[in-house]
Amino acid sequence: MRPMLFHDAARAILISFTTYCPKADMWTSNMAFYEFGVSELVISSFVRSYAFKPNFYESKEEAILFIIDIVRISLTLIIVVSLLIAKVIKFHANL
């Protein structure tokens, strides 16, 4: 009996994984697609690998949303710090 990695009815297998290189600060996306012929021969349809660096944004619209998010976070931090300072001043004034 041979080991079962997948069912006999499988026609193809897709292998996809991502790797990271910390020295170069680069990611690689790897994908391989293998088909099984009628005679149980494995046919490699395509193997693809490409390197990339992830971005915070991909398009102009996403860049604008990124700036809006930074502004919103900044305003939230300013409001929270202002409220904390006001509570500390009020607490010390009541002593």
Shape, per Cα inertia axes: elongated
Strand order of the largest sheet: 1-2-3
Main sheet overview: 3 strands, antiparallel
Overall mean pLDDT: 83
Termini separation: 84 Å
Rg over CA atoms? 27 Å
| Computed structural class | alpha+beta
User: How many helical elements?
Assistant: 1
Low-confidence runs of at least 5 consecutive residues? none
Helix amount, in percent? 25-40%
Beta fraction: 25-35%
- Say how many strands there are: 3
SSE series: EEEH
Give an overview in words.
The chain is an alpha+beta fold and 95 residues long. 36% of the residues lie in helices and 34% in strands. It contains one helix and three strands, in the order βββα. Strands 1-2-3 form a three-stranded antiparallel sheet, with no helix packed on it. A hairpin with a 5-residue loop joins β2 and β3.
Task: Please specify the SSE layout and strand pairing.
Layout: E1 12-21, E2 26-36, E3 42-52, H1 60-93
Antiparallel strand pairs: 1-2, 2-3
Which features would summarize this protein structure in a list?
single chain; alpha+beta; 34% strand
Summarize the structure.
It contains 1 helix and 3 strands.
